[in-house]
Amino acid sequence: MRARSVKLAALFTGFSLFLAGCTSQASLGWLATQRGTTNQTDRVIDLWVGSWVVLLIVGVVTWGLIIWAAVAYRRRKGQSGTPAQLRVNMPIETFFTVVPLILVLGFFAFTARDQAIIEEPLPDPDVRIEVFGKRWAWDFNYLDENVYYSGMQAQELPEGPIDADSLPVLYLPVGQKVEVTIESRDVIHSFYIVDFLYKKDMIPAKTNYWYFIPEKEGVYRGKCAELCGEYHSLMLFEVRVVSQEEYDQHMDELRAMGNVGRLGPEYNVLQNLPGTSASGEEG
User: What is the pTM of this model?
Assistant: First the structure.
């Protein structure tokens, strides 16, 4: 009776896992995005889900062996003393060494391959945007349009949540090649668009770049992903991927507001770092 109950429980568990794997969220590895959000998200999703499938198989085999050993070699009624001890088992020890090494090398190879593809610059970008992280908000320079947007940190409402209308907003035209130049005005930040499944560090006196193509219109969440001080949790922003017409309209609105020009490194808090003109050093 007990054996039958165990078999039924195992069957039910396996069936539940199978049904869970059929959900759309499971196919994304429970990542906060959808396929086709950018030209890069599918690659990240496939790497993530593939890694978890391999790890799940390894976990099931490992736990299965542990449970089997605990059951098969348990102390039975009437037994006493210490079981026979084995000092060396070369085949098993070799297996436990080689298989994890192969897994680690495999994960490294696939990750390095995908990261190299994602980091590859896009030739002749259609849109060039410069992003400055600052405690605790963002400045966006639309370099091709010669306009800018200066944001402030998220504002907390008396009842608890933040005022969504106060968030800095970055506009991107759908289907266009985007080059984002990423810099910091003060301390280390990290430019993270959650739904795009990628982030880039913002390091003082160092410029990073990110190239991608947004492929779905919508409103996406962004945040700083590097602890940067007291109000780090309020260093939020939105990304709006819109049609070319709506993007051009927003550029005209920024011009009408007088936001013409560029908020460059002259507004950086730190002006004496290697690589800055004030220090007199080359970094």
Answer: 0.81
Please, which residues have CB within 8 angstroms of residue 186's CB and are 6 or more apart in sequence? 134, 135, 204, 268, 269, 270
Range 19-28 contact pairs with CB under 8 angstroms and sequence separation of 24 or more: none
Q: Where are the domains of the chain?
A: 2-71+88-119, 127-267
Cβ 158 vs Cβ 208: under 8 Å: no
Distance between CA atoms of 201 and 98, rounded to whole angstroms?
A: 35
The dihedrals phi and psi of 221, each to the nearest 5 degrees, come to -85, 145
Token look-up 């944001």 returns 151
The one-letter amino acid at 234: L
Instruction: Please name the fold of domain 127-267.
Output: Immunoglobulin-like (2.60.40)
Per-residue pLDDT reduced to its tens digit, 168-219: 999 999 999 999 999 999 999 999 999 999 999 999 989 999 999 999 999 9
